[in-house]
Design goal:
The structure is a homodimer of 259-residue chains. Chain A is α+β, with helices and mostly antiparallel strands and 259 residues long. Chain A is built from nine helices and 13 strands. The first copy, chain A, folds into two domains: 163 residues, MoaB/Mog-like domain (Molybdenum Cofactor Biosythetic Enzyme, Chain A); 83 residues, Ribosomal protein S10 (Alpha-Beta Plaits), CATH 3.30.70. In chain A, strand 6 and strand 7 form a beta hairpin. Chain A is elongated. Chains A and B meet through helix 1, helix 2, strand 2, helix 6 and helix 7 of A and helix 1, helix 2, strand 2, helix 6 and helix 7 of B. Strand 2 of chain A pairs antiparallel with strand 2 of chain B.
Chain lengths: 259, 259
């Protein structure tokens, strides 16, 4: 089935939290989710970082849940007053927020002490949602419609994703190939354009790097069709050689991006 | 003037590039821009990561330029076919894209060789735009209306920002204070809620951490009013102590975020 799957399944990530937008914390979930989704045949098409403002969260969830096949959120599901993701997602769907015995039970498996007010808050789940297990710290996420609500902690988010593996609708998986060349991008540009025009179904990206005072670029090809990807790679390799640019074999050198 | 400035000036960052959305490259610009903007009295209110798809870039620029006082973009201003930010911003404003002698001159200061096709591409600037100098590698960004188009390379982006320092409309600057406590968030939650309710103009965020198998949380207070911030900090400190939670003095311990 995977061989003949030509459907594009899209996703959007909402990163919820003032701590990201203020620069206090650097997001680590986008990169991980992007790669994980691609393994599942889903394309991360957009990500948004939004503040802990209820009206913004509600409006954004409403907008993106109709634009993308799947929405994933990270952050804002803890026990304190600033954790408002669950209530906002509930409101976006017009669903009431209810105390979930199942969520409370999962939450308390790893905790000592009472089911206090903060913990009860973490067990408030929109009506009709299914729980996402949290094998790390107990407190579950949930799925409501096409929206998947997860923790902001990378360790917890990654564990929650694992519990979803294989359960999502699978579309085309994008395959990637790369060529690394020590040459200025502007000199390779006409060659890249020509090959890109011949392979409109293969996205060719050019990402410059610097290494030992030498400049070059990583040319990254992406396509859901492995045969077309291979053909474009061969074509690009020979077009570059013809134009006098010699691709490096194997891995790219350690590099920093330059522009 | 800064003392009596109560205006909120907002910004949105558009991170443009398939390499970020595919997980190949981890964005480093959001965190830097957020802190830089705060120094300038501007609040980063939203960030979006969008793909190298012209229709998406044009529509997003059109939307956010009316929603926020300032828009900043990073990525997509190089010499290759996949660098389409300038033409998309031009289209979003209905402005023609023109060859700029000034941009070409700045570009060529640091380059050897001819003004080839790819380099000419980097000198194509929307009509009416002002250039943003690039002290690192020459190729300029530009300002069109309230949209600031910058490079994706962190080094270049940061240098471009420095050339803008002091030139933007300055609003309230958000001040921050933090208390770090070794205690479970859920136990502190009622105390936090009480202080938050008493200080609705001071945002209180709770960010859990783990260190040496002990759990705690960083309580971060943010406000544009230094007096209110100080009062909320004092109140929170004494409310925590009253409830039996002893804030750590000085800096937080090395920690990882946990949820």
């Amino acid at each position: 089935m995977a061989e003949s799957n030509t459907e594009v399944v899209t996703a959007c990530l909402l990163i919820i939290g003032d701590e990201i937008l203020s620069g206090r914390t650097r997001d680590a979930n986008l990169t991980y989710l992007a790669k994980w989704l691609n393994e599942e045949g889903i394309v991360l098409r957009e990500a948004r970082v939004i503040p802990d403002i209820a009206a913004v969260i509600v409006a954004t969830v409403r907008e993106v849940r109709t634009k993308f096949d799947y929405v994933f959120t990270t952050g804002g599901i803890g026990p304190t007053h600033d954790d408002i993701t669950a209530e906002c997602v509930a409101e976006a769907f017009g669903a009431p927020l209810e105390f979930s015995d199942a969520a409370a039970a999962e939450l308390m498996v790893r905790l000592t002490g009472p089911l206090n007010e903060g913990r009860r808050r973490m067990a408030m789940i929109p009506k009709g949602a299914r729980l996402i297990k949290n094998p790390v710290s107990g407190a579950p996420g949930f799925i409501l419609g096409n929206v998947h609500v997860m923790a902001g902690s990378p360790q917890v988010m990654q564990a929650m994703l694992e519990t979803l593996r294989g359960s999502l609708r699978r579309g085309r998986k994008v395959e990637t190939a790369a060529i690394h060349v020590y040459a200025g991008e502007s000199f390779m540009a006409p060659t890249l354009s020509r090959v890109q025009n011949a392979y409109p179904d293969v996205a060719i990206g050019s990402y410059p790097f610097a290494h030992d005072d030498k400049y070059g670029a990583s040319l990254v090809l992406r396509s859901a069709d492995p045969a077309r990807l291979a053909a474009a790679l061969t074509e690009l390799r020979s077009a570059l050689a013809e134009a006098g640019f010699l691709p490096l074999d194997g891995e790219a050198p350690p590099h920093r991006a330059v522009s």
